[in-house]
């Protein structure tokens, strides 16, 4: 029961102390920032409600990822995310962190995101009396000659208390004795105890005196430390060395080289001989750190630099020098030396990247915070002032924040396709003389966004396909590229829906969505479809996706798949044509004319006529190109009255297609009228026949005149363009007008190489006029021959490819003059 009561009292005592500290801490937080806490707080102790002080709600510290960073290298504090409180994370020893520096400030950086912000707070660590004064040695031996007069002073070792302020060293005391008393002197702000001889010593009465020196601090409760002093009474040598000055103070730059002299201490002894010879030493209580930095010459008292002086490590060195004579016993004198280390600019600035966001999207808006950067310099004064700059030529800038803190933000557009990453060089320069600088590279990677549509390798594509091809065969391939990367650069191809002769284009063409290969869905028939176009779309896989379109012109090339069709004699007249001819006909008499057409084009449509069989092959001949059947000689009485002719009609294709027609010619006496078609009535009035004959004569005369004029024009133009490398001529194949859909024009291209031909279709396709840009000389009017001058010696096929094939039934013009649509 008694133990429980004591435990409750102990807990109550701790709670009261904690409440007192909490009230003190709370008042400090309310009064100002930084926070103030005592050292040695237990882990988990609350420093303050940082969320409340920063104006953040409990949910915000989760969402904005609140975290803290410390320059001390250790995380002494953490944030309770459930309460928003700043709590102690590790044991805090003020003496370890700050030594004797007052105040002891521990800077913290509080970082929150979305948006990225930096808050700087400072926590002052207050000292508690947790250290007792201590001496370097627990025992001090003094050799004092018995002849020393009362009033002589002997310096004692000073105690050291790591605590500061009221808890630091306050006083000394000496144990009760008859011969000695204690004197305290203040030197350089430090209390130094001295043992003063009160009455003369008598070695014969007492050779050794034992004393206890006590050092007490000012804490509550006070702490103390002791050192035992043993005084050995000596005889004879009764004069100690005396220094010229009891205290030496020197200022030394921290970059003074090793071996350089700092000061020369000198002492003198009024004794003679060995009793007057002096040697110099560091006092017994001199720290090892000073003895590692400095050296004292035992003969001259010259103090030189032995190690590397560093202002940032220690800026003040205080120690004692002892001068001893060589008498017996040896007498000694003392002086104090204080060396102030002056700072020089020997530390380059340090660049600290507190936070870095990388990669960032290329569409980031100007002003976006990329990184939080700070700088510090271990030097002081002007040597410690740091300025941050950055390399030019990048779309970033440094925006100053609190002292020596900067934000790296965007200040221009980013384009991953131009630069996929930026190496931003941060330069820190101090204000020392000469200034020192440090460089640090911050790599910012750029994240791709889908900002570039696919681009086709050509502005348009032209495909030539033979008719009657195999369904499913590849026609061509289109290719597009996307300068984005990843999914944004993956491309799918598709054909946009459109109509070709009122049928969806997808019925004709299929495209591979992965590689852009275009396939035919079925075979084509040139006689039904000569040209059409499709729109191919390339779409990337970005979000949102981007696309581009390209036009593919498909030209159907003619194959010789149609045999010539006989127009006259008409099929309705029967398989055999019956004609009449007078026996009085002379040589060259036009008996009849065979007319045929070929649905194919170009060479495949060129028709020739040949007499295969005849009753009398010496009597009749057939014109190879016109199909006119004429007599080769005059008809004689011996010739049979019925002549049978078998005429073959062939095209010029490969393989050759042909047709035949049989003509029966009846030779009659006294027949003078032209043979007419059996469908015409034989009883027509002679007046009407005479009019028809008149019109035919007029028509033939007109055609002859036009042909002559055209020939003259052709000759003139050919003479004018004789120096050019190529020319093209247009020849009308038939004389029955361009409006006849079954007639063709033949375009002959004369170049330095082989002769080439281009077929120009008839008037059935004169639906729209477009410009043919490759010809320069205008064509005023179509006649039998017309000269057209190309712009270069380029193959005529390249000229034809320039044509806009958006409408398959379009007509073309040479320099605004209408010409029927042409294909190779």
Automatic annotation (TrEMBL):
Q: Which residues form the Cadherin domain?
A: 29-135, 136-243, 244-351, 352-456, 457-566, 581-676
The protein's location, in the record's own words, is: Cell membrane
User: Where is this chain primarily localised?
Assistant: membrane
Task: State a GO cellular component annotated for this protein.
Answer: plasma membrane
Q: Say which species the protein is native to.
A: Salvelinus namaycush
Can you tell me where the transmembrane regions are?
692-716
Question: Which UniProt keywords are listed?
Answer: Calcium, Cell adhesion, Cell membrane, Glycoprotein, Membrane, Repeat, Signal, Transmembrane, Transmembrane helix
Q: How does it sit in the membrane?
A: Single-pass type I membrane protein
**Listed name of the protein:** Protocadherin gamma-C5-like
Which function does this protein serve? Potential calcium-dependent cell-adhesion protein. May be involved in the establishment and maintenance of specific neuronal connections in the brain.
């Amino acid at each position: 029961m008694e133990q429980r009561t004591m435990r409750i009292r102990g807990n109550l005592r701790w709670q009261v102390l904690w409440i007192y500290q909490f009230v003190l801490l709370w008042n400090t937080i309310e009064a100002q920032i930084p926070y103030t806490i005592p050292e040695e707080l237990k882990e988990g102790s609350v420093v303050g409600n940082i969320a409340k002080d920063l104006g953040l709600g409990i949910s915000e510290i989760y969402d904005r990822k609140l975290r803290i960073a410390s320059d001390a290298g250790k995380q002494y504090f953490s944030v309770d995310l459930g309460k928003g409180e700043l709590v102690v994370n590790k044991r805090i020893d003020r003496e370890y962190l700050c030594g004797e520096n007052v105040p002891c400030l521990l800077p913290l950086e509080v970082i929150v995101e979305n948006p990225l912000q930096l808050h700087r707070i400072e926590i002052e660590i207050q000292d508690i009396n947790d250290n007792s004064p201590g001496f370097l040695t627990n025992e001090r031996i003094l050799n004092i000659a018995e002849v020393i007069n009362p009033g002589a002073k002997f310096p004692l070792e000073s105690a050291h208390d790591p605590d500061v302020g009221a808890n630091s060293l306050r006083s000394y005391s000496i144990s009760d004795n008859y011969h000695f008393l204690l004197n305290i002197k203040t030197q350089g702000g430090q209390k130094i105890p001295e043992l003063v001889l009160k009455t003369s010593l008598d070695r014969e009465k007492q050779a050794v005196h034992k004393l206890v020196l006590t050092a007490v601090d000012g804490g509550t409760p006070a702490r103390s430390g002791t050192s035992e002093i043993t005084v050995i009474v000596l005889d004879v040598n009764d004069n100690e060395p005396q220094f010229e000055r009891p205290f030496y103070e020197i200022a030394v730059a921290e970059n003074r080289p090793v071996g350089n002299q700092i000061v020369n201490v000198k002492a003198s002894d009024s004794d003679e001989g060995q009793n007057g010879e002096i040697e110099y030493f560091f006092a017994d209580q001199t720290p090892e750190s000073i003895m590692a930095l400095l050296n004292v010459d035992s003969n001259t008292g010259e103090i030189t630099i032995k190690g590397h002086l560093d202002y940032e490590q220690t800026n003040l060195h205080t120690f004692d020098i002892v001068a001893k004579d060589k008498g017996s016993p040896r007498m000694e004198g003392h002086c104090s030396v204080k060396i102030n280390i002056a700072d020089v600019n020997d530390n380059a600035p340090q660049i600290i990247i507190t936070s870095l966001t990388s990669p960032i999207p290329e569409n980031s808006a100007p002003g976006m915070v990329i990184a939080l950067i700070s700088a510090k310099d271990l030097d002081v004064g002007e040597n410690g002032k740091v300025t941050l700059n950055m390399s030019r030529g990048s779309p970033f800038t440094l925006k100053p924040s609190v002292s020596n803190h900067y934000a790296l933000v965007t200040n221009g557009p980013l384009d991953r396709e131009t630069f996929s990453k930026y190496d931003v060089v941060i330069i820190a320069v101090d204000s020392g003389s000469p200034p020192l600088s440090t460089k640090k590279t911050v790599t910012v990677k750029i994240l791709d966004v889908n900002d570039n549509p696919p681009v086709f390798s050509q502005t348009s594509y032209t495909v030539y396909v033979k008719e009657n091809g195999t369904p499913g065969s590849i026609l061509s391939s289109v290719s597009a590229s996307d300068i984005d990367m990843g999914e944004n650069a993956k491309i799918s191809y598709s054909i946009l829906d459109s109509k070709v002769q009122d049928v969806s284009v997808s019925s004709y063409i299929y495209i591979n969505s992965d590689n852009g290969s275009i396939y035919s869905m079925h075979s084509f028939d040139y006689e039904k479809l000569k040209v059409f176009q499709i729109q191919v779309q390339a779409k990337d896989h970005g979000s949102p996706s981007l696309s581009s379109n390209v036009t593919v012109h498909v030209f159907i090339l003619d194959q010789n798949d149609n045999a010539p069709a006989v127009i006259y004699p008409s099929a309705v007249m029967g398989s055999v044509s019956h004609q009449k001819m007078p026996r009085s006909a002379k040589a060259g008499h036009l008996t009849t004319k065979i007319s045929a057409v070929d649905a194919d084009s170009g060479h495949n449509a060129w028709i020739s006529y040949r007499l295969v069989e005849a009753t009398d092959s010496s009597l009749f001949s057939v014109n190879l190109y016109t199909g006119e059947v004429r007599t080769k000689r005059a008809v004689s009485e011996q010739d049979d009255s019925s002549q049978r002719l078998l005429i073959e009609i062939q095209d010029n294709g490969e393989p050759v297609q042909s047709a035949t027609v049989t003509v029966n010619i009846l030779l009659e006496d006294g027949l003078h009228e032209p043979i007419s078609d059996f469908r015409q009535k034989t009883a027509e009035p002679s007046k009407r026949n005479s009019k028809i004959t008149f019109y035919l004569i007029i028509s033939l005369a007109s055609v002859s005149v036009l042909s002559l004029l055209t020939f003259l024009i052709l000759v003139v133009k050919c003479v004018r363009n004789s120096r050019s490398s190529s020319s093209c001529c247009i020849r009308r194949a038939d004389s029955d007008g361009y409006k006849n859909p079954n007639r063709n024009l033949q375009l002959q291209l004369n170049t330095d190489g082989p002769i080439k031909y281009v077929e120009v279709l008839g008037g059935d396709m004169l639906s729209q006029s477009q410009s043919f840009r490759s010809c320069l000389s205008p064509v005023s009017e179509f006649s039998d021959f017309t000269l057209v001058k190309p712009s270069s010696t380029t193959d005529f096929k390249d000229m034809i490819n320039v044509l806009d094939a958006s409408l398959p039934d379009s007509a073309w013009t040479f320099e605004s003059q209408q010409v029927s649509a042409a294909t190779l």
